[in-house]
Structures are given as structure tokens and as C-alpha cells.
Amino acid sequence: MQPSLKYAVVERERRFLVAGVPDGDVERREITDRYLIGTRLRLREVRSPDGSVTRKLGHKVRLGDDASAVACTNLYLDEAEWTLLADLPARVLRKTRHLVRRDGRLVAVDEHEDGTLVAEVDDGDSPPAPLPPWLEVLRDVSHDEAWTGVALAR
Known about the structure:
CATH topology: Hypothetical Protein Pfu-838710-001
CATH superfamily: Hypothetical Protein Pfu-838710-001
């Protein structure tokens, strides 16, 4: 049975191992994800260069047989809510997100603590667009569970 999408946003992300962060207009964010053990819930803290911090509780559910289609629901948390939930047992993933804007495209490249680079391309409701030629793809890992955030978390 498919979950209700009343409050969810559908993402259609493709993931790729890449050789480097492409040149272009790049913004950086420091992200800490806490995948709550025994649930499909993720606590995410995003730190921006301007010092702002965004904290949210997310829930993701795959839609049918399409591994790239995910229904995402988020709740934004205040400091007290974050502090309470952050004490729950979780697997943690830390990464630097490079948001690259170039030639009218936006690509997120996540740099993991071990130096691995994973690019995410969200196609929204459109059919998959060709990858930009400036993205140096090593391998498509879109359907490889080992490259999901929850699998990479420790």
C-alpha cells in the first residue's frame, strides 16, 4: 500500500560517485545526519557559512518499485526539540555538501569524512535529464543501497 502523499514532497534523486567537486558557483553546508535506530526517521542539522543552523526531523518512504522515487516529510525543530531527540540512539553521518550551480543546473556533491564524493541530482517530476558534461562521474550508485545515507552512517 502506497503511503499518503498529503504532506510529503516526492524526490527523484540519482546518485553518482564523482572524481571531484566541479567548478562553478559553490555554496557549502556542514551536515550531520542522525538515523534513529529502529525507525525510518532522520534528524538533520545543517550549518551554513553565515552561522545559521537548521534542524529538522525527516521521514522517507520509497514509492513502489522505483528506487529513486522517495516521499519525504520534514518537521523543523527548535533547540529544545532537537536536544531531546538527539539523545535517542542513532547512527551518525557527517558530510560537507557542496551545492554547485553551473550552466543552469544545480548539483549537490556530498564530501564524506573519508573523502568520498557522492553527487545527487534531483529530477523532480521530470524524466531524468542527461547529466551535465562537467560532472566527472565514476559510477552510478542510484540503485545501490550501500550508498544511501543510512547505510553510510556509523
